[in-house]
Amino acid sequence: MKRSLFCLILVHIMITCFSPMVLAQENKAIAVFIDDLPVVFDTEPTIQNGRILVPFRAIAEALGVQVDWDGDTKTVNATDGKINVRLQIGDKTAYCNNTPVSLDVSPIISSGRTLIPLRFFSEAYNCKVDWDGVNRTAKIFSPPKEMSVTGFYALGDSRTSSWTDLFGIPYPETTVGNTDVVNQLSLGWYSIDKDGKLLTESRTGWQRPDGWEDVLKAASKYQMATEMTIHATDGDGTLTSLLNNDTAILTAVSNIIEEASMYHGINLDFEGLGFKDVGEQLLATQSAFNRFVQLLAEQAHNLGLKLTLTLHAPNSVYKGYDYKALAGYADRIIIMAYDYGTKPEPSDLVIQAVEQSLKYVPKEKLVLGISVPNENPDSLVSKVGIAKRYRLEGIALWRLGLLTDEMWGTLKATVKVKENSEN
Fold first, then answer.
1. Does a structural domain hold residue 12?
2. pLDDT at residue 83, rounded to an integer
3. What Gene Ontology terms for biological process does this UniProt record contain (predicted)?
4. What is the mean pLDDT of residues 155-169?
């Protein structure tokens, strides 16, 4: 009798204590992430018969899939150019490239929005889907996406050697190593002074190493394009002096063009412009940089060389970059969307930088710069995910020599590297 009474009391306590928790859990909103980035819906996802249903347009756009809604037949048509999916409201048969697929739950209309089965739609486009029932969170990981991957190649010590990190073995030997994840090298070997003299040794540490010719030969062997990178900062006014001196500008452009004949292109990395400038002074700084870039671009393009600009992000403190004008001169723009003050870099600020850049730069020209020291293998998923979601030309890694094996693994799982048309 006492045991029965005890059991009844225990059951009562469990019902009283845990029922609200279960109810709260069931009422918790469903969160959906693609490549560790949240997907925002205007209608809440729901669960029916154990299957998650989500608004089709938001999930499709986040995956880079084009969708059309036929209101007459209440049909969703989706395609990424290779895979075509068709679903109809109330129909448990979907079609993937015209092959019928049975669904556990049919698409529905809720609050005026069409909701489709999340797992079926995602897996149709070769995504991996994980469901965390406790936290009511769905995580989708998209397949590797084709894009360019630029690696900044600069000096390091024996522990952070760009050569060893890239080729998988100490200099001067080579193996494939990680060259299958990089299709372009930005060789950080140059700086410039206020008179336009090209420097292969600079006070900022950028210099051309002994055996630099071996790097060019190895890059060619593994089908990687190369560009000479000219790095300078305006902390001491070097760039301001250069950009406001017509003779120095002509000298600088001439020296760069002469050296660039050994490479496939030029990467101009002039940092620190416009830090304290406002009003007319800021416009003057932007205009001076525009003139330099325009002249360099004309000379480079005449020789069949491509010009890349590595720029501070629009939401940084450096405002000396007129993205609209520069996008017209450059073949690519790498935005340094990092150094926001926390590690890993906050995805919301990186996204803000991308969205502000895309107001002026076509996505086919925009490259997301990633600061490797500020990331880890997991956070790298979301940074690559941003490049995927916004269909950017690619990513740029600062720098080779700092990536861990786990980071290379992340890249190999998320990126399909573009083949270079020529080397």
1. no
2. 97
3. carbohydrate metabolic process
4. 92
In a shared domain, residues 133 and 259: no
Give me the domain span that covers residue 237.
145-417
pLDDT of 411 over the 90 cut: yes
Give yes or no for a contact between 308 and 332, defined as CB atoms under 8 angstroms apart.
Answer: yes
Q: What is the pLDDT of residue 11?
A: 47
Q: What is the mean pLDDT of residues 46-51?
A: 94
Cis peptide before 172 (omega within 30 of 0): yes
Residue 202 CA to residue 193 CA, distance in Å, equals 9
Residue with tokens 């690696």: 151
Do 103 and 50 share a structural domain?
A: yes
Do residues 294 and 330 touch, judged by C-beta distance below 8 A?
A: no
Instruction: Report the distance separating Cα 262 and Cα 103, nearest Å.
Output: 58
> Any long-range contacts for 177-181 (C-beta under 8 Å, 24+ apart)?
178/403, 178/408, 179/222, 179/224, 180/412, 180/417, 181/149, 181/408, 181/411, 181/412, 181/415, 181/417
Residue 3 pLDDT class (50, 70, 90 cuts) = low
The 3-state DSSP composition of the chain as helix, strand, coil percent (nearest 5) reads 35, 30, 35
Q: Could you tell me which of 24, 10, 39, 28 has the C-alpha nearest to residue 389?
A: 39
410-422 average pLDDT score: 89
Bridge-based pairing of strands 66-70 and 75-79 is antiparallel
Q: How many domains does the chain have?
A: 2
Cis peptide bond N-terminal to 399, omega within 30? yes
Kindly state whether residue 15 falls inside one of the protein's structural domains. Answer: no
Residue found under tokens 């890694």: 397
